[in-house]
Every structure is written in structure tokens, then in C-alpha cells.
Amino acid sequence: MTTNFETDVVIIGAGPSGLFSIFECGMLGLKCHVVDSLDHIGGQCIALYPEKPIYDIPALPEIMASDLIANLEKQAAPFDPVYHLSQQVTGIAGQVNDFTITTSKSVKIKAKAVIIAGGTGSFGPQKPPLANLELYEGKSVFYAVRSREKFRDMNVVIAGGGDSAIDWAISLSEVAKSVSVVHRRDKFRGAQASVDKLHALAEQGKIDLVVPYQLQALEGEGDTLKTVIVSDLDHNQKEIPADILLPFFGLSTSLGPLSDWGLGLNKNHIEIDQATAKTNLDGIYAVGDMATYPHKVKLILTGFAEAAQAAHSIRSQIFPDEELHFE
Ligand code: FAD
């Protein structure tokens, strides 16, 4: 089913640059829709370092990345942005003042201008190369845990050896029927206290450490997972009863369809005119980490400034004869 919308500006990417673009556009009377491939706003700040303090935002001597994003969302809220999350922008058709943006969920948005705030590209989970994985995704296979209650009394298999795998194994061992952690090494990479706790729970029989093993195959009935098959380097196989598989292999980024739109690219970045944030395509602007020009500094505050440049350029594009009066 296709859903159609119409707005002034479509912003691709809900990282800090995309979120501040909503505010800058809003101040100039421009309405925005924002698309992100992640299921949450915040870009790298939330996906990679939500609890890291940031020290180089003007007038904020120290702010946690997740708080910065919460503030940006609040600052943008009065302008009623519409967020389309968990979907990638797959196409841009049309021309200046009459674009149609299509997403991977068949959403179509008509807009007069486009701001690409795509950072290093679409973020998505690093998926294990397993046959029929898509069949179980969203039903038995999840790449993030929103609420651990969803997994109460279930057989949960976690794959991975980093912080997410360790922390969720510990947490889910309190509610799940069983928790197995599949990791290709016998050493885990995480905070030492958490690794110690993981081993202690394994000794108490509350977590089964399946090491050194790798995911091999999934078996189920229809789209309901029943068994995760793992194998070691000598191809010895084990079958683990499973209702849920949680692969925690980190995030991958890809420029994806952006690279096919005829934009002037320079090493996976979009070249812009620094003064206007314009790309080589009329009506399409780029800001933040994805935008480049000589001596570009990749910082959040640079993206903020570029968002302002882009918003002012778009206002002149849409209302060429109207003078700007700030009130
Ligand atoms: P991003 O934050 O990368 O967001 C881009 C978003 O666009 C992503 O969510 C992505 O999924 C989405 N996207 C891309 N393509 C598509 C598509 N086709 N369809 C849909 N969605 C798409 N900077 C600082 O200023 N100070 C710091 O202290 C600091 N610390 C950092 C620490 C770490 C560990 C890292 C990794 C970076 C740090 N940075 C810091 C850099 C800062 O995070 C980036 O400069 C900033 O996130 C760039 O913001 P952005 O909005 O341009 O892109």
C-alpha cells in the first residue's frame, strides 16, 4: 500500500543535523517530513554513543549525547515535523519545487526541496548470513530489545560477544525461560564487571555460553522460530531450542541509493556549495557529515550551521520574491 504526503521539505536523516534542519526550516515557515532508516531519531549520537558526554556544543559545557537529541527533538516539536522511521529513502524523482521522495515502505512524499542529512549513510543492523532470515525478522528475530517483558518465559538465543550481547544476556536471564549466548570466541568484549557477571550467571546455570560457535541455520514452523543450529570450526553442530534470536553484531552503514541520484560525490560524501549548502542538483541540499567542501570539519556544530544555510537557501528558492523579516 502506498501512503502519500505533501510538504515543503523532506529531510533525509534524523541525526543532529537533520533535527536542527527542522527547527531552522520551521523558523522560516517551512514544514518538514523526516525519514530515517533507523527506528529512532538521533543518528550516530543515539546509535553509537548515547551515554557519551559531548563538550563542544556552544553554550553547553557538557551534555550527554542522548540529552542533546532529546533537546533537539523538543526544539523542533513546535514546527510539527512528521517522522517516517525504520525506512530508507530509496528514490527522488521530479525537479526543483516538485520532488517525489519514495521510501522502502512505499511512502511517497511530495516536496519542494530536499535536505540530505544522511551522515555516513543509512544505518542498519549487521545481519548474520542465514537462509530464510527475513522470514523470522520482526517475529522471532530482533536486532534490538525495546522491552524485555516481550521475551518473558521464552527460549532466547543471543548471538554476539560485545556489550549489547553481554548486557542483554544478563538482563534477560531474569525473565526468560532460557538464555543461550552464541559467540565465535570464548572471550567476550565488554566492561569487565559485566563479563564477570555473565560468567557468574553461566556457572549458576542461568545462562548457557555456547562458545566458540557460530550461527549456522534457523529452523521453524511457518514464520515461528523453533531451533537455532550452530557449528564450531570443526563443523560440529549443536541444536538450541529457540523462540527468539537476538543477533547483536553491531551496525553497518551504506550510502545505498543516494549514490545513484546523480549527485556530485567525493569519496562517499556529497559536494556542496558551503555558502548555500546546495548540491549540484537544483532544489537538493546536503548538510552534516555527508556534506563536503574544502576544509570541512565533521562536527555536530558544523552540521547545525549548514542546516541554517540550507534553510535560508530553500526559503529563497520557494519564495524568490519575498524579503525575510525576522520577528
Ligand atoms: P548522523 O548522525 O550520521 O545521522 C544520519 C542519519 O541519516 C542516520 O540515522 C542514518 O540512518 C540516516 N540515513 C542516511 N541515509 C539514509 C537514507 N537513504 N534513508 C533514510 N535514512 C538515512 N561530534 C561532535 O561534534 N562532538 C563530539 O563529541 C562527537 N563525538 C563523537 C563520538 C563518536 C563515538 C562518534 C562516532 C562520533 C562523534 N561525533 C562528535 C561526530 C558526530 O556524531 C557527527 O558529526 C554527527 O552525528 C553527524 O550528524 P549528522 O546528522 O550529519 O549524521
Walk me through this protein's architecture.
The protein has 327 residues and is of the alpha/beta class. It contains 7 helices and 23 strands. The chain has helices at residues 16-27, 43-47, 65-76, 133-136, 163-172, 192-203, 300-318; strands spanning 3-6, 9-12, 32-35, 53-54, 63-64, 82-84, 89-95, 98-103, 107-111, 113-116, 122-125, 155-159, 178-182, 208-210, 214-221, 224-231, 237-241, 244-247, 251-254, 265-266, 269-271, 284-286, 291-292. It has a 5-stranded parallel β-sheet with strand order 6-3-2-10-22, with helices on one face. Strands 1-9-8-7 form a 4-stranded mixed β-sheet, with no helix packed on it. Strands 14-13-12-18 form a 4-stranded parallel β-sheet, covered by helices on one side. Helix 1 (16-27) runs parallel beside helix 3. The two termini are 42 Å apart. The structure holds flavin-adenine dinucleotide (FAD). Flavin-adenine dinucleotide binds at residues 12-18, 35-38, 43-45, 48-49, 52, 54, 56, 88-89, 117-123, 256, 258, 288-289, 298-301, 303.
